[in-house]
Write a structure and sequence with these properties.
Layout (H helix, E strand, L loop, with lengths): L3 E4 L3 H18 L4 H4 L8 E6 L5 E9 L4 E9 L8 H15 L4 E7 L3 H5 L4 E9 L2 E9 L4
Parallel strand pairs: 4-5
Antiparallel strand pairs: 1-2, 2-3, 3-4, 5-7, 6-7
Length: 147
Amino acid sequence: MEILVRFASTAQDRDAAYELRRAVFEVEQGVPRPLDRDAFDYNADHVVAFDPEGRCVGTGRMVRLDQRTCQIGRMAVASTHRRHGIGAKVLEALERMATLRGVGELVVHSQLPAEPFYAARGYRREGTVFAEQGVPHVSMRKVLPRG
């Protein structure tokens, strides 16, 4: 399946990402909308993935925490397109963006079922399980290679 992954550069790209997040988090997982959308969306760097029909089927964002660290979040893949490597492509694009910006570390608050996904890509668990937006998560960190 041919998937186009790119940095979200237009309002339409971001709107497509927000609609996918709404479908995954609000509709599928029952997370209240005010908890999905937040003030970080406006300053975050977003990545979107589109299928051949032009539908947004994957997204994620990166928020700068400090000079050295960014947080990956709001990773979502359409239920019809899971297990086809789209999440990995979105994460790779976010990591590439971080490297281009001189970021040294990435952190992610992973939902527990997604922990193996991040672990397989070099993220290591830190601390214990905690609830975020009513969903069990674990904090994970990855040190990026120097570019």
